[in-house]
Amino acid sequence: MWARISTGSHNILQEARDVRVAFKLIGVEYSGDSTRIYDPLAENGMVDGIAEKVENLSYADGTVKLLSWDAESDMPLAFTYSKGVYIVEYKAIDGKDPGAGEWNVYYAFRVLNYSTDK
Question: Which end of the chain is more exposed for a tag (fewer CB within 10 A), N or C?
Answer without folding.
Answer: C
